[in-house]
Amino acid sequence: MKRIIITILIIVFSLLLSSCIQDYLIAPEGTTLTITAKPAVIYYENDYSIVTVTAFEPSGRPIRDGIIVYFYTDLGSIPEQAKTKNGKVSIKLYSTGKEGIANVTATMPGAGEASVQVEFSTSSDL
Asked: Over the stretch 75-93, which tens digit does the pLDDT of each residue have?
């Protein structure tokens, strides 16, 4: 009976460990990142731009699914992270009532970072 319990504990521990490792995938060395924001100019209040990061392995293939991309901005609001799907990840950058230029940076473990700017404008002619 003791051996069965130990075997079950080993299996459970192995499954937990493998699920934790899955959350910390890193990009292969030499992965390149590109980042875009559409539109590049948004209204300064209650508007958003779609920020898309694309990552390619050195071979030119899109990176695998599930690699975390971390996002930072000095203006507006964005999710802190998202996982890749088909070599891409897209998030929404929301304007929060201040006019200016948002500098958005995406980082990926193993691949470095990429940045893009989005203008938050008071003009209603966007």
From this structure: 999 999 999 999 999 999 9
C-alpha–C-alpha distance, residues 66 and 88, integer Å: 10
Structural domain count of the chain: 1
Which pTM value belongs to this model? 0.79
Strands 68-73, 81-83: pairing kind:
antiparallel
Domain that holds residue 46: 27-121
Which residues sit opposite 48 in a β-bridge? 94
Burial per residue of 45-80, b for 16 or more beta-carbon CB atoms within 10 angstroms, e otherwise: eebbbebbbbbbbeeeeebeeebbbebebebbebee
pLDDT, tens digit (0-9, with 9 covering 90-100), for 32-73 = 999 999 999 999 999 999 999 999 999 999 999 999 999 999
Domain containing residue 98: CATH number: 2.60.40.10
